[in-house]
Amino acid sequence: MSNGFLRFKSFKLSTKSNTINRWLSTGFEEHQLTSVQCGALLQSFMSTKSVGRGKRLHAYTITSGLLFNNTYLCTKLAAMYASFGEMVDAGLIFDRIVLKSSFLWNVMIRGYANSGLPEDALVLFGEMICFGQKADNFTYPFVLKACGDLLMVRLGREVHCQIVVRGFAHDLYVANSLLAMYLKFGEVWVSRQLFDKMSVRDLTSWNTVISGYAQNGYFDEAISVFRVMEQARVGQDSVTFLSLVAACANLSDLELARQVHGRIVGESLEYDAFVRNSLIDMYCKCGFLVGAVKLFEGIVDKDVVSWNSIIAGCVRNGEPVRSFTLFRRMRAEMDEVDQATLTSLISACNQLTALQCARCIHAYIIEIGFGFDITLGSSIVDMYAKCGSVEFARQVFDEIPTRNLFSWSAIIAGYGLHGRGKDSLSLFGQMKHSGIKPDGVTCVSVLAACSHAGLVDEGREIFEKMSSEYSVVPQMEHYICFVDLLGRAGRLEEAYDFIERMKMEPSIDVWASLLSASRTHNNMHLAEAIADKIFHLKPKGTGVYVALSNIYASARRWKDAEVVRAILRQRKLKKPPGYSFVELNRTVHWFLVGDRSHPQSEEIYAKLADLRIHMKEAGYKPDTSSVFYDVEDDVKEKMLECHSERLAIAFVLINTRP
């Protein structure tokens, strides 16, 4: 009997489908359709997202007279337009319906919430309550979504109270929406408490909490919840792994990243376009560019996100030349280039500091129609300043039609980078006069400009006005800038006292700034004291350890210098080699210390030998104080002779006119 019923039901569905197909193939305008038949067609169009056919049927219902005073068809039409995201048309039909059902209210609230119109969704929800219509488990999820999108914490909590009072708190769909709303508010622990109290959880529940942790910066907690999810034997999908990949990327944990990648392969999700592009980005952020490139090259149907991920990854990992090589391949294989691509190329130019390269990128941006984009315009201003031409930077800045805070910050920082602190201060004044209030980034830019130009009093005035006039609470980067300002001006004791009086615990970078200034001004007593202080803070990067070693070596504390180097070896930390580069005839030439890989290497060293003779004849005596090794002076001199800067200068001398 059961099998017979199923066969009968299957026959009915098949017959209904065939009938709909016949209407569509011959044109429903040729048939005398009933309201029920039109409703079936509208439902079919909603399922297949057939916007054009839906509008044709709407026209048919008007011309045939079927729509007149037909609440059933009007409701179906409103639902169709809402599902297409065409809320203006849905709203017009909705307003004509006198007797609005709970289904219709829910359809409209859902449509507004899913179409990026959360305010309209909440207004309609208020009208629904005023009309005496009770909300149900299909209403609340989209009301909660709207509250979350608008960050309306108070209203969200009030709706939560309604849900508890009306007994919908244990509905799985509603509970998942509550989790998502509180995570949007940043109230991670409230969301976790709700999650822990849920008697029934589905995949969406787990994914919501894991992604919420990752999006709010709680990456370790996201991994922890995933491990609990595994213990509960809940299956994972691409959404789960996208959140995990983001967590690994932000933690820069390569070992964990490899484990997650292995799980993705085990679940056969490595061919999902979103997942594989995220994996490329993850490996780049973990510093494993080789793995990222291998993944990228294995993709047959590369999309623009794939290209952007690997290009940005090369820039992030200090390989700007490789990023341009990939960009040329990208242009050869596809036409699509977006703002993310161009932003990465600008960052690559910033690393190369090659002016000709910057001009080429700027010309290309104008050529493809992005020339008037404010964000890109601000980035181009910054690019030209970093590539050595503040004049070009100013020209681009003056051509930006509507300047925002980023534009002003870029040009202020640009002038500061070139030591033109007074110009930076003048622009800072113009920005305030134009009605734009400086933020923390702008304050960093102008403080740095004052530091490079030695404008101590002006920098002090800006620092003191940050809280009172600009409503900017000084952060660590502002303290670093101000310490650098005092240090460069030789006010070392004042800088030391300032650090001691800081309202927050000074970071290693604050002390490192003063350490650098102490070395510059030959105050070795203070430098040694700061070095000892930094050493006990156990810094993580190589830069501070190298500076510490150099300080101890300058003070001839060779044993302490060796202890620092031993720590570097023990922690497997390696200082990236210093290099010098020059741009000549539209080509960038790179040189390392003692480099002999350049095609003109023999000529370069011959030029250096010739220069050395002339320099000694002129009375030059090498300053070996910058060689921080316990070796004889003649060995130190030889170490200086093949410095990367000397190689670069010799190369330019033999390839340019006198």
From TrEMBL:
Pfam families xref list: DYW_deaminase, E_motif, Eplus_motif, PPR, PPR_2
Domain of life, per lineage: Eukaryota
Keyword Repeat on entry: yes
Domain DYW: 619-656
UniProt xrefs under PROSITE patterns: PPR
Keywords recorded for this protein, A-Z: Repeat
PPR repeat spans: 101-135, 202-236, 303-333, 404-438, 439-469
InterPro entries recorded: DYW_dom (IPR032867), E2_motif (IPR046849), E_motif (IPR046848), PPR_At4g14850-like_plant (IPR046960), PPR_rpt (IPR002885), TPR-like_helical_dom_sf (IPR011990)
GO molecular function, one term: RNA binding
PANTHER family with a match to the protein in the record: PENTATRICOPEPTIDE REPEAT-CONTAINING PROTEIN
Protein name: DYW domain-containing protein
Organism (species): Nymphaea colorata
